[in-house]
Amino acid sequence: MARSNPNAGGGARSRLLGIEAAVLLLALLFLSPFYFVLVNSVKSLGEILVDAASLPKKALFSNYSRVWEIIRFPHALYHTFLITALSVAGIVVLSSMTAYRIVRKPTRFNKVLFFCFIASMTIPFQSVMLQLVRVTSFLELRGNLAGIVVCYFGFGLALSVVLFHGFIKGVPMEIEEAAVVDGCSPYGVFRQIVFPLLKPITITVIILNVLWIWNDYLLPVLIIGSNKDLTTIPLAVTRFFGQYTKQWDLALAGLAMSVTPIVVMFLLLQKHIVEGITTGSIKG
């Protein structure tokens, strides 16, 4: 009879502990920026320059009140929320309908269109920046709300279509056929039958796009530019960085204020990200 090795279990546990320790250290490494932002947001500028890693000797919560007034935080927060809400709503509607059409009507044109969506995700944004500025200037889309929202539509559709595409393939055709027999129109089938079934992947698309648009800086600076009436939070925070001065104490306080709403939303809805992506990949 073969005799079991008593050291085998101990070796496996040691390896498991080693992996857990490595993962914990990696998690701490990725969480360290949050520590630096929160700690230094309540320090004076001189204390930050002396030692950015230490805890504050005296917490200066007045940094937050100063930032609130300097960047007109409610004004910037309103426009950031408005741009994010309109952009995400449009992306969800357009990408879900596009993906539904591609899945249910697999014509050669639709297959090529889907391939174009996938291919567009490999193009770096920096390579189209100059052309984007020229096109939006020609169409008079720069410096206004419609321009930035339309641009987010274009850059956000590709990934969203791919995510919806994988999920819709798992929706049974029999449900739609029964609705058609009952007299439901094609748009009614999608609106009343299909779209409610897409809730998990819809929440995933919403979260991913909100995280991107809320914190985006490059596209607003290209499209909104110097229009202070449409300033977003990332653009407003850049006011603390001049040619000769960098007000890190106020900038970090503004950064902490800007990410708080999005972090809270992410923590409340994070389980839907994994649920939506895994369900879509399995069904697709």
Please characterize this protein's 3D structure.
This protein is mainly alpha-helical and 284 residues long. The chain folds into two domains: 12-50; 62-283, MetI-like (MetI-like fold). Helix content is 75%, strand content 0%. It has 13 helices and no strands. The chain has helices at 6-40, 45-50, 62-70, 73-104, 108-120, 129-138, 145-168, 173-181, 186-197, 199-215, 218-223, 233-237, 248-283. Helix 4 (73-104) crosses helix 7. The chain is globular, with a radius of gyration of 24 Å. The chain starts with 5 loop residues before the first helix and ends with a helix. The model has no long low-confidence stretch (mean pLDDT 83).
Which helices and strands, and how do they pair?
Layout: H1 6-40, H2 45-50, H3 62-70, H4 73-104, H5 108-120, H6 129-138, H7 145-168, H8 173-181, H9 186-197, H10 199-215, H11 218-223, H12 233-237, H13 248-283
Summarize the structure.
The chain is an all-alpha fold and 284 residues long. 75% of the residues lie in helices and 0% in strands.
Terminal Cα span: 48 Å
* Run of helices and strands: HHHHHHHHHHHHH
- The helix count comes to 13
Characterize the largest beta sheet: strand count, sense, and whether it forms a barrel: none
Q: Would you give the CATH topology of the largest domain?
A: MetI-like fold
Ranges where pLDDT stays below 50 over 5 or more residues in a row are none
| Global Rg | 24 Å
Q: State the name of the first-level CATH class of the largest domain.
A: Mainly Alpha
Mean pLDDT: 83
Share of residues in strands: under 5%
Summing up helix and strand content along with how strands pair, one would put the structural category as: mainly alpha
CATH superfamily of the largest domain: MetI-like
Annotated CATH architecture of the largest domain: Orthogonal Bundle
